[in-house]
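In this supplementary section we document a worked example of the pipeline. Step one takes a protein sequence of length 568 as its only input; no multiple sequence alignment statistics are reported here. Step two produces a three-dimensional model, which step three serialises into structure tokens for compact storage. The input and output of this example are shown verbatim.
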Amino acid sequence: MTRLTFHSKTRAEYLIATGRVILSAFFLFAVWLDPSEPTRYAQFTYAILWGYVVYSLVVGAVAWRKGFGWAPLHLATHSIDLLVFACLMFLTTGPNSPFFVYFIFILVCATFRWQWRGTLWTAVAAMSITVLLACYPSNLLLEQSFELNRFIIRIAYLAVVAGLLGYLGAYEESMLEILAMLSQWPRETLPEEPGTDSQGMLGHAAAILKVPRVVLLWEEEDEPWLHQLCWTAEGCRYEWKEPGVFGEIVTEGLEQASFFTREAGSSRGLVVCNTLAGLQQRHCAPLHPEFVRAFNVTSACVSPLNGERISGYLVALDRRHFTPDDLVLGGIVAHEIAARLDHALLLKQLQQGAAADERLRLAHDLHDGLLQSLAGAGLQLAAVSRLIESDPAGARESILQVQQLLAAEQRDLRTQINDMKPLFSRRKTEEFGLVKRLDELAGRIKRQWEVACSVTCHTPAPRLQRNMAREIYFVVHEALINAVRHAGATTLRAEIRFDAQWARITVIDDGRGFGFQGCYDQDQLSDLKRGPVTLRERIDALNGKLVIDSSERGARLDITLPVMELGG
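The serialised model returned by step three reads:
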């Protein structure tokens, strides 16, 4: 805001400096062409005018070159302008002086610099000078009669011009304040539940619109509720209501128009509305009687809310005098509120979607990890029961393997639970150790299923995010377990290659293949609803690619996953 004010003041100083140079030059030129005024004090007047021309050029050069941003210098130049004005009036017939028009220039300068306050004090100073010169015995100075009528007219002229410029200055100051407030919206948007405070957003809106009460009514897309938020200086009240509790809140024909009324309870009250056809006046009851009774509405300014996911109205209440400017301002405020409500709802939907994705990921992890391992442990325990009497040593070895398997799965499950905790309550976890875990997976599959299995990383694994390393592990795990369980494979081989952006995984087995023959990519598999569903969903969630080449002699899976390499 400071930067905008500086540039605005700089432009004003450019204009004032230019105007001062032009006026001083033409004053001197006019007196030189017609020296009838002044007569007795011509030398003093010419000296003042020449000095003022030089002064104007110097000040103009400084302003044009450096912008003149020092506030005390503005007061100094303004005081010099007033002094020159007083001297020229004194030397040229006082209140009847032709230099009286210079007063307008000084007033405009004061308005540019200090808005209505500058106009007020400059007008008081100029009028005081004029009155003092009128009281001065002019006959002793210039031996001319005093013209009372011209003095009265000029005093009235001074007052009217000062009033008009003061109004413009006050209006500009008000607009600057409103622009500053529009640029400083609070972060609060939608309250989380009824009764919570959303005073920041609506309180800010009330301050901009200069009203003691604001009511916000909106409906969300695909949700059967009317949300009502009422702000006053005492606090904020948020409620959900049944749709239609206030009927059609706004009368027909005004649904998409901004309007204000000072007679909301009257069936023939004056309504000023801003429509596509321009500013119009109507005589009707613009608001539903139930709404008027519920909020004891007398005067109101209503602006529609038209968001992507919400629709409703912003109603500013209890201000005595609304103007057409408030319709434009109310529309801007309503647009800002609608955008923030849309943003809050979109954020809520994204959070819900993220939670659903996290639940789906957890379900996949449990299916691909814990459940598969428990199934393998069950098979090993069944084999142990047959070996207890015939081969006690082999049975003890198998039981030890099951214990190691359960310990590993317990560790994985504890890690998953820790990852789901809030960030501030998590324990520091060790690195995932992808290569080591893949080696352990291959050994476990060998022991559990009594098959040949190998997992090879042909290039060093980059420094992966822990979640990404876990996802790669589960993808390989699911692909290998599917081959041995569902395709009856006896030989399995997984190969992994990494580059800066991708992890490329190839899984080959000698099983029966899938229930189809040929090569299919992920889009074709999804359209035909073929292939391993869980594996396909996991790869799709990671924005990866899957290609399956299936035959009666086995299958080949080519999987490509994007990886994020972290800096050291």
